[in-house]
Amino acid sequence: MPARRDDPLIPAWSRDQLDSSCPPEIETPYFDKLLSAWVLSRHADILAAFRASSLCPSGPTPQGGSEPFDEGLRLKMRAETMEALSPAQLRVWRAQLTPQAQALAGNLPIEEPLDLMDRYATPLCLSLAAMVTGISRNDAEGLCDIAQQVSATSAEPHDPALRASAKSANAALRSRFHAGPEALRDSGFVALSQTIPCLLGNAWFALIQHPQAWRLLHQHRGLTEQAIQELLRYAGLVRTLYRTATADIDLNGYFIHKGERVILRIIAANHDPDRFSCPNQLDVTRRDGGHLTLGAGPHSCVAAGLIHMAAVSITAPLLQRFASANPARPIEWRGGSGFRSPRSLWVCLTARED
């Protein structure tokens, strides 16, 4: 059961956090009366939920406040986005992003405290956001604060003040993007400029906490792409996703009625021992894939290829140049029930092995 906050309607599984001292609890599906929702945490159950045609994406509250789900529109937007994110286009963006990352990594100071988020992740993700959405880098910098307001309410969707701020921020962003698939306009800019840095922050925090893994990747460059998949599983980002049943459904033996809400505990599923061997260990040589960080089935993240490309292109130069990253300050976390990540990552980078 979730650890309750002041507001009992806000889910708070404290173990579903990267910095938790205890692994997530994996439980059989149950109906939480206070949250008025089914709660899924096992990998097999959440995978089935992603694949179920009668479980559609919904908001974090029973009333939702969102537009009715339109499957036809979703499929149309998905097809347009997949076409825009073709392998050929990803190669073009990778060819532009990689030298920028290499140059920036080459200019980072050695054995001096620096914030990896501010000095490295944020500028590169802003460059990528500008490339993909077709705006200038200067415009991207000018829109960064507005995008952060939108991202904040995704991190904690139950905060009414954040929702109010995001509403006006969304309107301001929408007026600045007009070309390309809708998913790669204002929402794409937010994802690329705000969400991907958060994902990278979690991944790098995990590597900093496991210096032997960082060292192994420094020594063996060919492991980086494989390691990114393990970091997505182990560190992840999204804590919970929400679905609503559009019809009665039998989900792995549990009967969910039409109209009932379902909460998917993504981080817990990614640490399910029935799916992953030694799930609470970071193993950058792991080959058993199947993490649910980017969804699965017909509801898998349409930008999964772009996210993977960005994570590899930005992380690889950092690992190649530096043999280790030693914490320089305590981590301050931001976010909430949606996702959490380091606000900053203060480290001292070392270019030689001990």
Describe the structure in your own words.
The chain has 354 residues and is of the alpha+beta class. It has one domain: Cytochrome P450 (Cytochrome p450, Orthogonal Bundle). It has 11 helices and 12 strands. The chain has helices at residues 43-51, 71-84, 87-106, 116-133, 137-155, 160-174, 186-209, 211-219, 224-234, 266-269, 304-321; strands spanning 30-32, 37-40, 55-57, 114-115, 240-245, 249-251, 254-256, 261-265, 324-327, 333-335, 340-342, 346-350. The chain has a 5-stranded mixed beta sheet. It has a 3-stranded antiparallel beta sheet with strand order 4-12-9. Strands 6-7 form a two-stranded antiparallel ribbon. It is globular and about 60 Å long. It starts with 29 loop residues before the first strand and ends with a strand. The model has no long low-confidence stretch (mean pLDDT 91).
Please tell me what the overall shape is. globular
Quote the distance from N terminus to C terminus: 44 Å
**Tally of domains:** 1
Report the CATH superfamily. Cytochrome P450
What is the CATH class? Mainly Alpha
Mean pLDDT figure? 91
Structure summary, number of beta strands = 12
Sketch the topology as an H/E string, one letter per element: EEHEHHEHHHHHHEEEEHHEEEE
CATH topology: Cytochrome p450
Largest beta-sheet characterization: 5 strands, mixed
Task: Give a short overview.
With 354 residues, this protein is an alpha+beta fold. It has 11 helices and 12 strands.
